[in-house]
Amino acid sequence: MSSSQVPDRAAVGAEITPPWSRRRRRRSPWQRAGNSSVPYLLVLPVLAAIGAVLAYPLYKLVVISFQKYGLFELIRRHGTWVGLDNYRSVLGDGVFWRTLERTVVFTIANVGLTMLLGTLIALLLVRVSSLVRVLLTVGLVLVWSMPVVAVQVWYWMTNYQNGVLNYFLTEVHLGDYFQHDWYATNFSKLAMVTALIVWGAIPFVTITVYAGLAQVPSELVEAAEIDGAGPLRVFRDVTFPVLKPILLILTSLSIIWDFGVFAQPWLLVTASGWNASNYLMGVYVYIEGYAHSDFGRGAAISLLMLLIVALLSVFYVRQMVKTEEAG
Amino acid sequence: MRVRYIAAVCLVAALAVTVSAATAAPSRSTARSITVWLQTDAQNGWPDIVASVNSQFEKDHPGVKVNVQYQQWTQHLTKFDATLAGGNAPDVIEMGNSEMTKYMAAGAFQDITSSKSSFANSSNWLSGLQKAATYGGHLYGVPYYAGSRVVTYRTDLFKKAGISKPPTSLAQFTVDAKKLAAKNTAKGFSPVYIAGPDWYVAMGFVYDYGGQIAKTFKGKWIGTLNSPKAIAGLTAYKNFFNVASHASKTQDEAHPFPYTVYAQGLVGAMPGPTWVTCCNLLGKYTKASAQFVMPSHTAGKPMPGFLGGSDLAVPVGANKALAVDWIKDFTDTATEKALQAKGNIPNATNLLGDSVNERAAARSWFIPSSKNWVNVENGNILRSMLTQILTGKLTVKQAATFASQNITSVLNG
Predict the structure, then answer these.
(1) Out of A20, A252, B54, B145, which residue is the most buried by the measure of CB atoms under 10 Å away?
(2) Neighbouring C-beta atoms of residue A24, cutoff 10 Å
(3) Residue B305 DSSP SS3
(4) Closest chain A residue to B249 measured between Cα atoms?
(5) How many CB atoms lie within 10 A of CB A246?
(6) What ipTM did this prediction achieve?
(7) Which CATH number fits domain B32-147+308-360: 3.40.190.10, 1.20.950.20, 1.10.3860.10, 3.40.50.1970?
(8) pLDDT band for position A25 (cuts 50, 70, 90)
């Protein structure tokens, strides 16, 4: 796919040009221009749709981030220009920096666990019998298709007073979990959120990696095994290089999702469980923007988040481009 | 397609002309509706009252449908903000008296000062609720009802534990809690169930010991939870909680609702709103339940309770005439009496009786009247402080000082 290959392919193509293709070449320049603009015309509706649903809100967000836009302005539907005030106030706020730090650690933990467990389960899927594979896949797809409301079920299961998890752990004699509070500390709250998010994210990673594994040439694996490579070695030198582009794109997607996650943590920990010492970015922007009705500040935080996610993903995108070029 | 649009536009225009011509007629014949946002308290506690008011209203206003949408306290403001931005706010909204200031200051409600005299008992409205709905001398809301907080208890369990009458002092209540604990050894039984971060209960202790959340000084707010009196109150709360409650120290009073634990038979007594005795919320223990006034640490006095209450407001862009008419029906004397029968405090002094709720209201406290108070609630400053105190993560003084500093900065922000 590299750029150096393109001329070769063109040359090869020229040698065996079918007759209908030759006829096309004789078309007038006007026709050719028409032809080459067809693809652009075809993507135009999509671009227009994206523009309508993404570009305009983004533009609005940028504008509001430079305005004083509170409840008063919301009702009258126009803010007052304040320049960089919102950015200055956010960047001067210790809560922002601590939240950012916490969210980065949280994202690394979540993405790491998701990728690790997801890949392991995908490798497992290759090995198991087809019946188990079907059952596992069905289970994964069910988890995947579960709406966010499933959080409520997690909440019930881990409830302090009547949660089935405490009951179960006590009944199987894993200790006295009666009235164990799974949300007692900031750490345990975020750990519960991590469990929920990893649970929800594994299916996508597993199914995608499993699909990627189908591309690993079995003769290469066999050859490596005959040469005496153990399973770890085979994974490192044969499977991993093939999977690398897929793993990279999954990682960068997971980073984007987990860094700004809101619905799951908000519903699981409940509104009264959040405070300045345990905010994640998604929760922080909601509290600052919506709960405090300071939409200008909220918009500024969102844009900063966008910037940070872009910076975080840039490394992976570069890696991906490199892999593409090398392949 | 286009033809159909044009036809539709013509039809609408034609209808509009008819309507404007018909406005002088006594009854409006076009189908319209008003949207009313009430809290789930009404849905759980008095859906029958809402239904009868609606049918009365719809009878008086033929063709007008009332669309009641029940909201949760924790989410309704966010939803309200969104509807304000979208220009589709409800016609009537129930607001907590602690939530009014911020929205009145932002101009979210229509001025209904001129209609005041047309509401029943409006010259005797409870001052707390009327004040909460007044801004810059203008009226932006109608008092709906108030609720003080009482203790609901199991008469059978009290009798079994040898407690002959409800406690009249905090010390006595503590002794009673120990007696109840001795007689009820079921795992997870709370003699007095209080969710740890329930700041409505905890602040009662603070005000009982002479403390307060914040005060104004030279036009600035100052958080005062770290004053010696407030710390004495918080310490008393911690001690009482440790003796009496096995509830979570981190989960609020909606997770789970205390009455659901009560209905499981795991609660001897619980402070909270009066209406829990209604609607079978207490399950098979409804008949064995009664209520008393939360006692003060000063014997014979009630502990100051949070005088919560609701106002009904008309957001900007709403159909003011219909909204005001609906509120008139919903706050007339008969409706207020019906609300009173459900254990609420009616909206006017001339309707007050001598129920346990009304006696409890004799001593009450209210949140600081700053337009930024909502941010203290949303930031969970008080709840975090209580969790830190109860889990022993911080001392009472450390937690209170931290919270006070936060409150000072948020209220002045």
Answers:
(1) B145
(2) 11
(3) strand
(4) A184
(5) 18
(6) 0.73
(7) 3.40.190.10
(8) low
